[in-house]
Write a structure and sequence with these properties.
Number of strands of chain A: 14
Oligomer: homodimer
Strand order of the largest sheet of chain A: 2-10-9-8-5-3-4
CATH superfamily of the largest domain in chain A: Type I PLP-dependent aspartate aminotransferase-like (Major domain)
CATH architecture of the largest domain in chain A: 3-Layer(aba) Sandwich
Strand content of chain A: 15-25%
Low-confidence stretches of chain A: none
Largest sheet of chain A: 7 strands, mixed
CATH topology of the largest domain in chain A: Aspartate Aminotransferase, domain 2
Shape of chain A: globular
Order of helices and strands of chain A: EHHEHEHEEEEEEEHHHEEHEEH
Largest interface: A-B, 63 and 63 residues
CATH class of the largest domain in chain A: Alpha Beta
Number of domains of chain A: 2
Structural class of chain A: alpha/beta
Radius of gyration of chain A: 21 Å
Distance between the termini of chain A: 30 Å
C-alpha cells in the first residue's frame, strides 16, 4: 500500500535517490564492493565527494570564493561552529523559533548575542520585518533561520544587511533560488532537501574565516575541512552519496527554479484548501507562509475533532501530519521530493472529513 | 567477481548487515517507507536506537552506571569532546601514532597535556610499557588508543591506572572482551567494527561528567546526549541501523568471545605466513601485533618488488592492501567481518609470488 509521507525530516526522498542508494549498498560504482564497505580514499568515492560539491555550486550558482563542505553533526553542531569560527565580540540573531533559539544559546557560549528581532510574542507565527536597517555594522554577523519547520514560516527573500549574513537553511535550501553572494555562510542539515540524515551542507565564503582570536580545535574549524575537501576525517559516505543522487534528480528535473515553481504550486493547493475548508485554519501569517511546512489547526468550533482527523488520515496512509506540540494541530511537510499526488490525497481527506462532520 | 576487501575503514561489513540495510532503504520495518525517509521520532526508529544501545551493553557486558551513545563527527570529534568535557587542568596521553597525536593536539586546546609515554622513537611500531605506575593520580584522565590502524599495534589488555581511563577503540572494539569497568569513557568511530561510517559509539560512566568548570555548547556535552537518548538532534538514522544489524550478527555468531577467537585465528594465519615467507617481514613488535591491521613490508633484498606485489594481488581481486605512506609496504585490515577465505586468498598470493620470484 502506497504511503503518503509528510514527515518533517527525515522526510520523503526521490525514488531515484533511494533506488541508487539501495543499489550502491549492493555494488558501488561497479567496484563489486558495497558503498558501506569501500574506503573513502578510493577514486570512486573521491568522485562522489567532488561531484557533490560541484553540483551544489551548479544548482545554487555559487560564486567564486566560496567553499562547499559536507560535514557531520547536523545543523545543531553548526549552531556552535558558526560562533566558534566567526563571533568576535558580539553577533546578531533574528529569533524565529525553537531552532533560532537553540542557535542563540550556543552563540552565547562564545560572546554577546543581540537578539535584534523576534516573533516570540505571537508563538513565532510570523517573520519579523524592518530589522535590516537596525543592524549594527560592527556586529560579527547576522544569523537568520530561513524556514521554520515547527511554525511553518519562511523568509521569501534574502535580507540586505550591512554585515556578514549567516543562514540556517536546513529546511528550505534548494526550494527557491537564492543569491549566495549575500551570504557569508549557509548551513543545512541534509535530511529534508539535501539528502540523507547524517550530513550537513555548509557553503562558506573563504575570506570570512580566520579572523577571530580564539583557540579552536581542528575538527571544529571550517578551514580544516576546506583544506581537506571534506575528507579531514572519514565522511558519512552513504549519506553523501544519497545527497549526490538527490541533487542529480533536481538537475534532471530542471534545477532550483523548477523546484521553486513546484513548491509554490504544491503549497498553494494545500493553503487554498485550508483557507476554503470551514473546519481548518492556517497558523502562520499569510505573507510568511512556508512552502515547505504547512501548519494548520482546526477552527475553534471543531477543535475537539483534531484527534479524530488524525486517525482519519492515518487510515488513508497519510503519515506524519500531526503538528509539533508547540503549535498543535497539523503540519504537512512538503519538501522538494513530496509528490503532488500526496498533497492531493491530504486535500481529499480534508474535504471528505468536512462532508462527514459539517 | 568476488572481491577480497582489505580496506582499513570503511571496511568489509557482514552480508547480513549490508542486505538488511539495503532492504530497509526500500522498506523499513514493514512501514512501507524507506529507512532514509522515515522520521527518527517514529516508534520504529526509536526501537532501532534503543535496541542498538541495549545490544552494545549486552555484547560488551557494560555495567550499571554507564550510558551508551551514538553520536556524529567520528573519533576526530571525540578528540575534542573528551577534553572539553573531562579535562580540568591536565590530562595524560599515551602516544602510539597519528591518531593519538591528533587527540593530543585537540586536548591542548583545553589544558595541559602530559605525554607520559610514546613509541615515536621507533615509528610507533610498539606499545609503550611500564607507564601505568607513573600516572599522576591528580591527572584528569589517561588517554590511550587501543589499536593503531596505521602501524598495526594493539594493546592486549586493559591498563590499570590510578585515574580515569579514556580509550579510542575505533579499530578494535568488539574484537576482544574488555573490562568496561576499568574505563571512564570509550569511543569508536563505527566504520570498522561497529557498522557504517557516519556514527560514533561512545560508552561513558555517568558520574565522571559535569565536573569541569568550562562553558560547553550543548551539542558538545555528553550529558545532553545522555538526557536525550542520542536523539538530541536528528541522528544518522541509516548508519545507526547498520550498526544494529552488524551487532546482531555478532550476537548470532556467539558474541565478542567468538569474535576474539576468530580474530586471533585469522591474524595468526597471516602472521605465520609473513614470518615464514622469506620475501616479507612484519613491521610491528611481535608482542604488540594487532589482530585487526596486519602491517608488513618486503625484506630488504626484495624491496624493489613491492609495487609488483601490489599489482599481483590486485589482479586477484585483493583490494586495499597498500600500506599507509607512514609505514609503507602492505596492510591487511581484517576486522570482525573479514572472511577467512579472503585471508587465505592473500596468503596464497604471497606464496605464489614467492614461487615466482625466489
Amino acid at each position: 500500500m502506497k504511503k503518503h509521507n509528510f514527515y518533517a525530516g527525515p522526510s520523503r526522498l526521490s525514488d531515484y535517490a533511494l533506488q541508487a542508494t539501495s543499489e550502491a549498498i549492493n555494488d558501488f560504482a561497479g567496484t563489486g564492493i558495497s558503498l558501506l564497505s569501500i574506503s573513502h580514499r578510493t577514486p570512486e568515492f573521491q568522485d562522489v565527494m567532488d561531484s557533490s560539491a560541484e553540483l551544489v555550486k551548479e544548482l545554487l550558482n555559487v560564486p567564486e570564493g566560496y567553499s562547499v563542505l559536507f560535514l557531520q553533526g547536523g545543523a545543531s553542531l553548526q549552531f556552535a561552529m558558526v560562533p566558534l569560527n566567526l563571533l568576535d565580540k558580539s553577533a546578531t540573531y533574528i529569533n524565529t523559533g525553537v531552532w533560532a533559539t537553540g542557535a542563540i544559546a550556543e552563540a552565547k557560549c562564545y560572546g554577546e548575542v543581540v537578539e535584534l528581532a523576534t516573533s516570540k510574542d505571537k508563538n513565532f507565527s510570523y517573520i519579523p520585518k524592518g530589522w535590516e536597517s537596525k543592524v549594527d555594522p560592527a556586529t560579527s554577523y547576522v544569523h537568520i533561520t530561513t524556514n521554520n519547520t515547527i511554525y511553518g514560516t519562511q523568509y521569501k527573500s534574502d535580507p540586505n544587511v550591512p554585515a556578514l549574513l549567516v543562514a540556517d537553511m536546513s529546511s528550505d535550501i534548494f526550494s527557491r533560488p537564492i543569491d549566495i553572494s549575500k551570504y557569508a555562510l549557509i548551513y543545512a542539515g541534509a535530511q529534508k532537501n539535501v539528502g540523507a540524515a547524517g550530513v550537513t551542507l555548509v557553503i562558506v565564503r573563504d575570506d570570512v574565516l580566520g579572523k577571530v582570536d580564539r583557540v579552536i580545535p581542528k575538527i571544529l574549524k571550517y578551514q580544516t575541512h576546506i583544506d581537506k575537501g571534506s575528507m579531514y576525517n572519514t565522511p558519512p559516505t552513504m549519506a553523501v552519496y544519497t545527497c549526490l543522487k538527490t541533487m542529480e534528480r533536481y538537475k534532471q528535473l530542471g534545477g532550483v527554479e523548477v523546484m521553486h515553481q513546484r513548491a509554490n504550486a504544491k503549497a498553494q493547493l494545500l493553503y487554498d484548501e485550508i483557507d476554503r475548508n470551514p473546519m481548518f485554519k492556517g497558523t502562520a501569517a499569510v505573507e510568511d507562509r512556508s512552502n515547505m511546512n504547512i501548519c494548520f489547526v482546526m477552527n475553534d468550533e471543531y477543535k475537539d475533532k483534531e484527534a479524530l482527523f488524525n486517525d482519519f488520515v492515518k487510515a488513508r496512509n497519510i503519515l506524519g501530519v500531526k503538528g509539533h506540540r508547540l503549535v498543535g494541530g497539523f503540519r504537512a511537510s512538503i519538501y522538494n521530493a513530496q509528490r503532488e499526488e500526496s498533497v492531493q490525497a491530504l486535500i481529499t481527506a480534508m474535504q471528505d472529513f468536512e462532508k462527514r462532520h459539517i
